[in-house]
Amino acid sequence: MSGSTQAGRLGQVRTALTLRWRWAWPALVLAAAVYAPFQLAPFHVFQLTMVLVYAVALLGLNLLVGHAGQISLGHGAFFAVGAYSGAILLDRWELPYLLTLPIAAAVAFGLGLVLGVPAMRLRGLYLALVTLAIAIFLVPLLKRFEALTGGSMGLTLAKPAPPAWSGLAEDQWLYFLTLATAVVAFLLAASLLRSRVGRALHALRDNETAAEVMGVRLSFYKTLAFAWSAMFAGAAGCVYTWVIGFVSPDSFTVNLSITLLAGLVVGGLGSLSGPVLGGLFVMFVPNISQDVNDAAPGVIFGLLIIAVMYVAPTGLAGLAGRLIKKIPRKE
């Protein structure tokens, strides 16, 4: 057998193993996710549920920042829009829980599309300031329409009750509803990124001038990326309403938007695993900071971000990828 033939077959084997691994690790993670709520205490199940909620929100932010190369400091505002859309639909119209999810996502998508048209004519620092302004004025706006939003007191809602046939506790049922939403969201995002749209977003991120020369409509794809990002955030906000059973304007301050952006950067930009790692960061690191120092949790939070960025400048997903590549392989 010639050396070239041997090398070709070896290349085919490596490609097959790589493809199997790409399908194997999500299956393993999903299997562990399904198994987890039956082994954990209710509070820890709640924590994992919130990780999934944040992961869906960060998935949308990742489309905009990680894949389209745009900066947003107002992602928490669309999270709040989804949460309040779901809460109002449940409180005022008593719609079924599952019906509120696509409606809340559609409302957030529409708002993202409207706000994306003028915002996407900007770039860099100017775009960051515009999105920051969206997050700033949302809280007083929610408080102003008290008859609809409950004002400063917010809205208290009943959580989805598990059906009798499921045999699940309330925390487990909420977890599986959130897990199903997350799986659909990640499949949708993966499909989107593998399509022509994903290639256009990556061209836009890498070099706007070159992308425009190749025929990519910059304003069109920038606006759509903004709207898609808002849609995922709106869906996450709606599920957040189911899990918490309460919405209040003070839950959606500017700090939420900044924390989400920090979580995505720490998790890893441009990676499908980055939002999951970022969700873990958003859920647990602020609590750890509070436990370490009650007087200055923000200082601890900032130092932890700096430490992670020093060790993993491309995020935790990038660090994991580098460690896997260093594992010796048998030829």
Helix percent reads over 70%
> Based on helices, strands and strand pairing, what is the structural class?
mainly alpha
Weakly predicted, low-confidence segments? none
DSSP helix count? 14
Q: Radius of gyration in whole Å, from Cα?
A: 21 Å
Instruction: Tell how many strands the DSSP assignment holds.
Output: 2
Transmembrane segments: 21-38, 44-65, 72-90, 96-117, 124-142, 173-193, 224-248, 260-286, 298-324
Protein name: Branched-chain amino acid ABC transporter permease
Pfam families: BPD_transp_2 (PF02653)
Membrane topology: Multi-pass membrane protein
Please outline what is shown here.
By secondary structure, this protein is mainly α. It is 76% helix and 1% strand.
What does this structure look like?
The chain is built from 14 helices and 2 strands; from the N terminus they run ααααααβααααβαααα. The chain has 331 residues and is mostly helical. It has a domain of 212 residues. It is globular, with a radius of gyration of 21 Å. A two-stranded antiparallel sheet has the order 1-2. It comes from Nonomuraea insulae. InterPro entries: ABC_transp_permease, LivM-like. It holds the Pfam family BPD_transp_2. It is a multi-pass membrane protein. Keywords: Cell membrane, Membrane, Transmembrane, Transmembrane helix.
